Amino acid sequence: MTLEQLRIFIAVADRQHVTQAASELNLTQSSTSAAIAALEARYGIKLFDRIGRGIVLTQTGRDFLVEARAVIGRAKDAVQVLNDLAGLKRGSLAVAASQTVANYWLPPRLQAFRQAHPGIDIHVSIANTEQVAQAVHDGAADLGFVEGTVADPLLAARRIDGDELVVVVGMGHPWTTQKRVTAKQLVTTGWVLREPGSGTRAMFEAALKRLGVKPSRLRVVLELPSNEAVRAAVESGDCATAISDLVVARSLEAGALHRVTFDLPRRAFYLLRHKQRHPSKAETALLEAFGL
Predict the structure, then answer these.
(1) Are residues 165 and 141 in the same domain?
(2) Taken in order 230, 231, 235, 241, is the CA torsion positive or negative?
(3) Are residues 167 and 261 in the same domain?
(4) Does the pLDDT of residue 190 top 90, yes or no?
(5) Does pLDDT of 86 surpass 80?
(6) Which of 86, 118, 146 is the last residue of a domain?
C-alpha cells in the first residue's frame, strides 16, 4: 500500500466516480481504476460496489476511508514538519558547554538567536570540558563549547575567541599592595582552584609549566566545582585563584577582588562537533548567528 494509492482511493470515495477522481488528480482513468483494483486484490476485499454505471462505498470501504484520511493527514503533518524544520520555524538543539562559556559567553548570544528564531528550542547543559566532549561524542549534545583542548579523533574542534585568565585575590591579601607578582611567589600563598578536568584548571597548570613552576608545588587549599564558588571563596578568604576575566569582572568593578599584575595567556574557546554527524539547519543557523 502506498500513499498514492490512498490518495486515489480517497478521491474516488469522495466523488463516487472514477473518471472525475482521475481528472481531479490529473491521472488517466485506467491508472486510477488500477490503483483501486490493486488495493482490493492485495487484501482480498471490496472497497466499492459497482451499481449500474456508478460506484458506491462498501461498508469495508467506509471503514477504510476513515483510516486512509488519518494516514494522509499524518503524512501532510510530516511534510509540514519538514518544511518548518527546513525553514527554521521549529526545531531543537542540544548544546553542552563548560561553565565559563555557559554562564558568561553563551547567554547573550543565545538570547539574540532565540529572538531571531523563536521556534527553535535550545537545551543547554553545563559540565566541565571533559564531560562536554563526552556528551558530543555520545550524541547527547549537538554542539559543545569548551575552554580546554580535547583529544578525541571523532570530534572536530574549532578554535574561537575566548577570554583571559587572570590571577585575583581578596582585598585582605598581601598581594594587593604589590605592583607585580613573580612566578616564584605563586607557591607562597594558598590557592582556590577549579576541579581537575576543568578547562580553567588545565589552562592555568599549562601556563605554570611554561613558567617553570610545577603545579604540584602550589598549595591548593580548596578545589571547587564552579566558578561562582571559587570567586566567593576568594572574596571571603586569604587565597588566590586563576579564573576567567568574564567571571570576576563585576567583582573587580565593585572592589571585592583585586587583580594581581601577573601575565597569563589569553585563552581560546573551542566549538566541538561530531565529525560523523550531519549538521541540522538549526545547528547551522546557530553557528552563523554566532559568527562561526
Answers:
(1) no
(2) positive
(3) yes
(4) yes
(5) no
(6) 86
Residue 281: predicted pLDDT? 84
Category of 191 on φ-ψ map: left (φ > 0), alpha (ψ -120 to 50) or beta:
beta
74 band by pLDDT with thresholds 50, 70 and 90: confident
| Cα R_g (the chain), whole angstroms | 32
Q: What is the rounded CA–CA span in Å between residue 34 and residue 244? A: 72
Burial label for 23, CB within 10 Å (0-12, 13-18, 19+), is middle
How, if at all, do strands 257-259 and 155-170 pair? antiparallel
Whether this model's pTM surpasses 0.70: no
Q: Which of 86, 115, 143 is the endpoint of a domain?
A: 86
Q: In this structure, are 79 and 13 located in the same domain? A: yes
What is the average pLDDT value for the chain, to the nearest integer?
89
Residues 54 and 142 grouped into a single domain: no
Q: Do 129 and 178 belong to one domain?
A: no
CA distance 89 to 117: 7
Residue range(s) defining the domain that contains residue 113: 91-160+269-289
Give the 3-state secondary structure of residue 195: coil
The answer to whether residue 53 scores a pLDDT higher than 80 is no
Cα–Cα distance for residue pair 87/96, rounded to 1 Å: 24
Residue 175: per-residue pLDDT: 95
Burial 222-256 (b: 16+ CB within 10 A, else e): eebebbeebbebbbebebbbbbbbbbbeebeeeeb
Residue 120 has a pLDDT of 85
